[in-house]
Amino acid sequence: MKELSFLLLLIVCALSCQEKHMGPLPYIGGSEIINGDTIHFKIPDFSFVNQDSQVINNDSFQDKIYVADFFFISCPSICPKVKQQMLRIHDKYLDDKRVKLVSHTLDPKRDTVEALAEYASKIGVESNKWHFLTGEKDDIYGLNEQYFVVAYEDDDAPGGINHSGKIILVDQNRHVRGFAEGTDPESVTEFLETIDVLLEEVSID
Amino acid sequence: MASFTLIQCESQVFTQGERLYQSQCANCHMEEGQGLKRLIPPVASSDYYVAHYSDLVCNIVNGMKGEIIVNGTTYNEEMPSAKSMTATEMTNLINYMNHKWYPDIEIVTMSDIQDQMDSCLDK
To answer: Do B39 and A81 touch (CB under 8 A)?
Structure first.
C-alpha cells in the first residue's frame, strides 16, 4: 500500500512537472532592501466612494486580489473596449469571492455616484464585485501613477482626457503583480492566466 | 459621374467602409457591431437600424441623444456627431454595414448620400 502511494505520488509529480512552470509572479514597481528585508512597491492608502455611496479604501480589499483600471463615462475612445475586456475578467471570476474589480473615474465632476451607478447597472454588474470609484480629483490623478497608468487632462485628446487602457493586477498585500493592455483581447487572455497563477500563489479564502 | 466612380471603386468599397467602421464606430459599437450590454446598442442585427434606415445618414452626421429602443432594450447614451465625414466616406461606411449585416439592402450611391447629407440640418 505504501509502495502504491509512493508510485502515485511519483506519477502526479511527473504529470505536474510537464506543465509550464510559471514561477512566482513578478513584483512590479521596484523593490528596496531595507535592513536586509526586500520591500516591494505597494499601492498607497486611498479612500474613495463607490456607486452605492460606500466608502472604499484599502481595507475593502483585505484578503482579496483585485484588478483596476481608469476610465470616464463620456470617453469616446478606448473605454468601451476596455470595459468589454474587464467584463471578461468579471464574468470569469464572478463566483470567486477572492477577486474584485475596480474602475476609477478620471472625470469626478461629471461622473457622480448616481452616474456611476447607472453606468454599472447598464454594464450589468454589482457593486460588491466591481466598484466604480469617484472622489477628489487630486486623489485620483496621482493614484493613477501608482498604478502605472498614464492619465492627464488634454483638450486635444478625445473626451478631453488622455489616458491609457491598462488593467493592473494587485495582490492581497497591495503589490502590483501584473498588467494587461485593456484594448487588446489577446493581452487580456494572457492576463486571465496570470490571475489564475496569482490565485494559486496566494493563500486567501 | 458618381456611379462611374462607384463602379471603379467597387472592389475597394467594403475595404474603405470597413476601415471607416473600425476607426470611427467600433470603439463603441465594437468590432462585430454587437454593442456593449445595455450601454451601447448593437448596429448589427438591429431592428432600430432597419426601422430608422431613412434617418441613418443624419443620425451619423448629427449624433444621437435621448432614449431609443433596440431589439427590446432601452438605451440612453449620447452618440457623438460625425460632422467631418465626407459623402464618399459615408457612402462607403453605409455600404459596408449593409453588406455585413443587412445584405438585403441595396447598394447606396454617392449622390443619394450627398442629397441626404445636404438635408441634415441640426435636428
So the answer is: no
Asked if B78's CB is within 8 angstroms of A74's CB, the reply is yes
Give contacts of B27 with chain A, Cβ < 8 Å.
76-78, 80-81
CB pair distance less than 8 Å for B39 and A122 = yes
Q: Is residue A26 one of the residues assigned to a domain?
A: no
**Rounded to two decimals, what is the model's pTM?**
0.85
Beta-carbon separation of B80 and A76 below 8 A? yes
State how far residue A80 is from chain B, nearest Cα, in angstroms. Answer: 6
Q: Is residue B51 part of a domain?
A: yes
In residues, how long is chain A? 205
CATH of the domain at A153: 3.40.30.10
Residue A187 lies in a domain: yes
- A16-37 pLDDT, tens digit per residue, is 554 455 668 899 988 888 888 8
CA–CA distance from A35 to each of A32, A38, A39, A141, A173 (Å)?
A: 10, 8, 10, 32, 20
Query: Does B120 map to a domain?
Result: no
Assess whether pLDDT exceeds 80 at residue A199.
yes
Contact A38, A27 (CB under 8 A): no
Q: Is A148 left (phi over 0), alpha (psi -120 to 50) or beta?
A: left
Q: Indicate whether A33 belongs to any domain.
A: no
* Chain A contact present for B30, CB below 8 A: yes
Q: Which domain holds residue B39?
A: 2-113
Reported as a single tens digit per residue, the pLDDT across B73-94 is: 999 999 999 989 999 999 999 9
The total number of structural domains that make up chain A: 1
How is residue B73 written as a grid cell?
432594450
Angstroms from B16 CA to nearest CA on chain A: 20
* Residues of B whose CB is below 8 A from A119: 39
Task: Kindly state the cell numbers that stand for B5.
Answer: 466612380
Contact A84 B30 (CB under 8 A): yes
